[in-house]
Each structure stands twice: as structure tokens, then as C-alpha cells.
Design brief:
Blueprint lengths: L15 H20 L3 E2 L5 E3 H7 L5 H6 L2 E3 L5 E4 L4 H10 L2 H4 L3 E10 L11 E10 L4 H18 L5 E6 L3 H15 L8 H9 L10 H7 L11 H16 L5 E2 L11 E8 L8 E7 L3 H4 L7 E7 H21 L18 E6 L4 H13 L4 E3 L6 H10 L4 E6 H6 L1 E6 L5 E5 L3 H9 L18
Parallel strand pairs: 1-5, 7-8, 12-13, 12-14
Antiparallel strand pairs: 2-4, 3-4, 5-6, 6-11, 7-9, 9-10, 10-11, 14-15, 15-16
Helix pairs in contact: 1-6, 1-12, 6-10, 6-13
Length: 456
Amino acid sequence: MAAKYQAPRGTRDILPEEVGLWRFLEETARSVFSRAGYGEIRVPIFEDTDLFVRSTGADTDIVEKEMYTFAREDGASITLRPEGTPSVARAYIEHNLYKQIPFRKFFYLGPMFRYERPQAGRARQFHQAGIEAFGSDSPLLDVETIDLAAQYFDAIGLTGYEVRINSIGCSGCRAEFRKLLRDRLASRRSELCENCNRRFDRNVFRILDCKEERCRGIILTLPLVTDHLCAACAEHWREVLAGLKALGRSYVHDVHLVRGLDYYTRTVYEFVHPGLGARSAVCGGGRYDDLIGQLGGPQVGAVGFAIGFEPTIAALGERARISASKRFDTLTTPTNVGGPVAAEPISVYLVAAGDEVRPALLQMAQELRLAGITADLDFEGRSLKAQMRSANRMKARYALIVGEDELAKGTVTVRDMGTSKQEEVARDGLVERLRTDAEVPPGSSNRRGQQPARPR
């Protein structure tokens, strides 16, 4: 006999035998993000509708067609969140977090809601894990976010994914390119699909993202945005690509990638998996340097991404899903998958004694994080003294100081923040040195009688 009531279309129940897999995905996200200094934030499931209209974009498909919006008695309306970034940005501004510590890192987990056609890996109530970093325009921060997404997929056992990346410039150079696109497309509007004709007047950039066959042929004849970047955006783009190469992360330059949200600037990227067909993205992100200012906060740089659990589970395949679920069954606490579940003092803060060594510090941070050691570094271009203050404020157990001399010699100055003692350690022995001294088993005390440092 058929059930009288069923889950609404586009939603599903996660049954007890599936929960192990979902918890594995969630705890791995907490682990990977926490190791890089991102703290968990929990925001409401619904917000004032205008927040999404102003941030996501009034002309986007999400706002025009896909939001679950409800009228309030006072004539205003609220909307179930279709994505996480606007809510985190709103919290950053509302609580004046930028006045306390301008540069902040957050991660979140939870359900989102969009009224779209359900299909494999896509749902109307779907789940995401995402990160947001506010307060820096450093291209190395773009590189860090891409690397963390890759670390996450590697950790859960997803293979075969591809990183696609592009730059769409800042508001200045994009205005010039927008005019160029309109000039080139004006005589061919009759050949464009209905959506692209609407986009021509509202947001011509979105035409580059069209999947309609008749539009794709036209798009291939258009100029490339990366050939029309201003000097600052072109340099930012070069440094992002150089940073990815230094970390050993492969990528494909997708010249037509623009992403579907209005707030993006400069770097945009997607992680795609060929096994998912046309809608192959498992992660999407990029930079949005104007968003905080547009919502009433300071004009600060920002970058982040969101990982979709439903497409990720679909991409894993049955054997990988079973394997991941079994891996969670062997765990006893979140610590055993490599990290704390809430923001905790980091173990290592990397200090740049000169701007030229900053890319090398990000490589060291990657190595430490992959070894299970919580590590962070400065993305604001501050002085050595200011960076040491950050290491102290963040209660780091060690500050690793690197300048040109250390880089040339292949060494790192390790400063114990508790005793102020310093020693020079060989670069290739750094992980072993930190593991030996800093990785204290849970429940024990370290040799200074403090709570155990947990380099995760």
C-alpha cells in the first residue's frame, strides 16, 4: 500500500543507514577547514528577501525563479536561504566583526533551498559546506580556498574531478568589457535564446555562461575577458595561477566561466566531475571584493566557495560511498578525522619576514595542514611585528618565521610562543619536528603544564 504522505518533490529523507556517510562528509569538512584557521558559523535558515536580491542579484535565475519567499504581515518578505554567502556577510557586518578583527575566516554547513527541477545530484532542499574569508584582496587567499576544496575532495576519496578557473576582472575593467560584449552581440540578438536576450540588457556577462547550443556557437566567437583585464587584475590573475602551480594543483583555464551570481569579481572557479553529465559542478566559488561594501560594511576583499553534498555523493559512486560510510563507522570522535569541530587556537602561525617569501609560506601551510597540523598565515601584507601580534592573539603554540635568508638556506626559525625560545630547523624536517613536540595525545598535558595543543 502506497504511503499517504510523501516527502515533498525535491527533498528526501536521510535514513539511519545513510547517516554515517553524511556525517563523514560533514566532519571531514570541519577537519579540513579548521586546520586552515576557519571557524564554524551558524546563520539562520531564512533572511529578509532583500538581502539575497542585493547580493545574489535581482537578475539571476536564483532570485527571479528559484527562491522560496513568504510574505510577512508588515508587507515585507522573508526567504529561505538559497546560498550561504549573503548570510555570513550579513553576520560579519551586523556584529561589527570587522571592527574587532578585520580579517576573518568562517565555514558553515547546512541546508539551502531553491525551487529548481530535481535531477541526479540536484534537489530543492540541498546541503552545502562552504568557507568565506573577509578582509583581504591577496591572490594567495584565492589559492588557499581552491587548495582547501581540493584537500576536501581528496580526503573523502573523490577522484576524477577537474578544477576550472577564470578571471572576470573588477568592476572597472568589467565595465569596459561589458560594453565590448554588447557591441559584438548587438547584431546577433535574433540568434540568441530568450534568456540571453533578456541578459543582454540586464547582465550581458551571463550570456557567456549559457548552455543553449545555438548560443554556444556565438559565444565561441566573442573576445576573452582575460585579454581585457586592467593591470591590477591581470597581475592578480598571474599570481593566482603561479600560486596554484607552486602548490601542485592542476587546473583548466575555462575562458567562458563567469559563475551565475552577480557579486563575483576577479577569480571564479568550479570543481567539476564528468560523471555527473551536463550539470557537473560539485563546488563553485570565487572572489567578491564589492559584496561587503554593497551590504553596508567596509570595502574589503572577500573570497570563498560552496561544496554541494548531493552532487558530491552522486559523483562518489556506490563503492566510494560505501567505503566513506565505513570510514566514519571507525571514528569515535571528530578529533579522529583530523580536527576540532569549533574554532580553537591554532598550533602554528607562519610569519613572513618580507613580502617575497609569502608564496613559500602558503606552500608550508599546505604541507603542515596535510600532515594534520593546524596552521595559518597573514593575508593582509602586514609587518613582521603585526604578524607576531596575530600569532600571540590566536594563541599559536609556535610562530614559524621565514625570510629570504631562511628561504635560501632551506631553514625555518621556530619560535615557541610560550617560552620565547627560538631555534633554526631544517625545512625538510619541519613536519617531524612539530609533530614530535606539539602533537600531544588528547587527555594528557604538555611539558609546560598547559592544555594539550592539538595540531590538526
